[in-house]
Automatic annotation (TrEMBL):
Source organism of the structure: Anabas testudineus
Ranges that cross the membrane: none
Residues of the Polysaccharide biosynthesis domain: 35-159
Record-linked InterPro entries: PBDC1-like_dom_sf, PBDC1_metazoa/fungi, Polysacc_synth_dom
One GO CC term on file: cytoplasm
Protein name: Polysaccharide biosynthesis domain-containing protein
Length: 167
């Protein structure tokens, strides 16, 4: 993932102010465009950290949450044949997909912190985060798909690619 200035460009005081602002309830904002930029920066930072993690550690050993087993079981029970290698936007965003995903996601309210926050998700698990390969999803969708990708070996391509480039 290309490194940008991200939160570092804000400096310690700006990053602290951004973190505080993101912790306030949504009703405190209205349609403040600065909030959208802060959320985008937070999502980008999360994506960068995650990609660096799966590039550095064999993905099958990663634990993303305390509820990984529960998330994975519920995901595979609900979405038995869901193709996690190459996602299609309409499988997450269409009205029909939203109707399937909503009950799945809502079962983790109170169990997974910020379960419905926006997060960046790679469409093709063998590729980096790019504009063409990234979709905005909820955090629990990210966890469900990435836990499955890690356990089922789909993120191994990223890890192996980074290992090869180091040698």
């Amino acid at each position: 993932m290309a490194s940008g200035d991200g939160l570092a460009s804000l400096g310690p005081e700006g990053a602290s102010a951004a973190a505080h602002a993101l912790s306030l309830p949504a009703e405190a904002y209205g349609n403040d465009p600065r909030l959208e930029v802060m959320w985008a920066m937070k999502a980008y930072n999360h994506a960068e950290v995650y990609f660096n993690l799966i590039s550095s550690v064999e993905p099958k050993f990663l634990k993303l949450t305390k509820q990984d087993d529960q998330i994975y079981s519920a995901f595979r029970e609900t979405f038995k044949d869901f193709d996690i290698k190459l996602l299609k936007e309409d499988e997450l965003k269409s009205e029909e997909a939203k109707e399937r995903w909503r009950p799945f996601c809502n079962q983790f309210e109170g169990l997974v912190e910020d379960f419905n926050y926006g997060t960046l998700l790679r469409l093709d698990c063998e590729k980096d985060y790019t504009e063409e390969n990234t979709i905005f999803a909820t955090r629990i969708q990210f966890f469900a798909i990435e836990i499955a990708r890690n356990r089922e070996g789909y993120n191994d391509a990223v890890y192996k690619s980074k290992c090869k480039s180091k040698s």
